[in-house]
Amino acid sequence: MNSRLTLGYLIPQFPGQTHIFFWREIAALEARGVDVRIFSTRKPPPRLISHGWSEEAIARTEYLGAIKPLKALQTFLTLRPADWWADLRREGRGLARDLAMSAAAAQQLRQSCAAQGITHLHVHSCGRAALIAALARRMGGVPYSLTLHGPLSDYGPGQRLKWRHADFATVITRKLRDELPSALGPDLPSRVPIQPMGVDTDALRREAPYIPARPGEPLHIVSCGRLNAVKGHQDLMEAVRLLQDRGIDARLEIAGEDDSGGHGFRTELEARIKDLNLGDKITLLGAISGDEVKARLLSAHVFALASWHEPLGVAYMEAMSCGLPVIGTNAGGVPELITDGENGLLVPPRSPDALADAIAALADDPDRARQIATAGRAHVERNFRSDLGAETLIREIRA
C-alpha cells in the first residue's frame, strides 16, 4: 500500500456470538497495513459475549452511547433535513423515529472520526448503524460504505437514505444483489461487488484425517447458529427423533444462544427436547468461543443446519473448512455456497424427514462422507477465505 489507511469499522452490538467473522476480517485488514478503529452501537447481552478475544475487542471498541431521545432530537433539529423529506413522506414515523434516535450517535461518530484521522468508515450492517453513518456523513463526516448481510427488508426503514450517500456497498450473495435495483432505484451506488463473508482457513483446519462414524458407535452431529425459529433447530431435533426410531443412535450438539441471552427461544427448544424424549441425546451448548466451536467440529461426524432462511451461512463455511461433511437447506443464498452432492448435501427447509434421510445416507456411506468433506474444505479454501473480504474493502476504498 502506498499510504496508510485509517479505517473506521462499525458493527452493531459488537462483539456478539456470531461476530468472529468481523474479528477475522479486522485481523486480515491489519495484516495488510490498515489501521482499524472499531465502533459499535452498544454491547450485546453478557451471555452472548463468549469469545476468547471478546475482552480485547471490547477494550478496542468505542460505543456510540445509550440512546438519549431528547439529546438526539435536539441534535437532529440542528440539521437541514431537505435531503430526506421525500424519504420521510414515503416511510413515515418509523424513519422519523430512527433519524431522531440516531442523530446524537452520528454526531459522536463524526467527531471521533475527525479526532482519530479516520478517512473512511465501513458499516457491516444496513440497519440503524448505517443510518448513523449516513447522518454523520451529512454532518460533514467521512465517506462510508456498507455491507448487506441479508434481505433488505430485515434492516428497517430508510434504506434509500442509507445507500444514497455510500461510496460503495458489498453484498454477500448474487441473489441479494439482484434484488437491490428494484428496491433502491437510483440510490443504489455504482459499485456493488459481491463479497461473501469468509473464514480463517488456516486456523479452521484439521491435522488428523476425518473419520466417519464407525458401525455401532453413536453418530455425532453438531450444529451452530443462533437459537431462533428460522434456524430450524427444531426440525433437526425432529430428524434426530426419526433417526433414533430407525435404530441410528444420533447425538446432537447445538452451539448458539437466543438473542435475549437464554430467556427466549431457548426455552421453547428445551421444551421440545423434553417432548421428543431426547434429553440424553441433544445438548444445547449456549454461546461458546470460536476455539470451542472448532473442537466440536473436529470431533463430529456430520454438521447440519436446517435454516428456513439463510443469506449464506458462515457456520457452514466453518464446518467445511474443518473438513466435516455438511448438510444444509436449499434456502436463500446457501446454494451459492453448497453444491448438492459435490461439496455438501442440500435438503428442503422445514423437512425433518429429508434431513434424517441425508444424515443416514452419510452414516451409511463412509467413502461418500470423506469425499464430501474433502471437497468442502477445498471449496472454502479457494473461495471463502476471510482475507478476501479485507482485500475487497481495501480495493474499493482505494478506488
UniProtKB/TrEMBL annotation:
**Which keywords does this Swiss-Prot/TrEMBL entry list?**
Glycosyltransferase, Transferase
The organism's superkingdom is given as Bacteria
Q: Which residues form the Glycosyltransferase subfamily 4-like N-terminal domain?
A: 26-202
Q: Where is the Glycosyl transferase family domain?
A: 213-378
Under Pfam families, the record lists: Glyco_transf_4, Glycos_transf_1
**Which molecular-function annotations from GO does this UniProt entry contain?**
glycosyltransferase activity
Name the family the entry cites. Answer: Belongs to the glycosyltransferase group 1 family. Glycosyltransferase 4 subfamily.
What's the protein here called? Glycosyltransferase involved in cell wall bisynthesis
Source organism: Salinihabitans flavidus
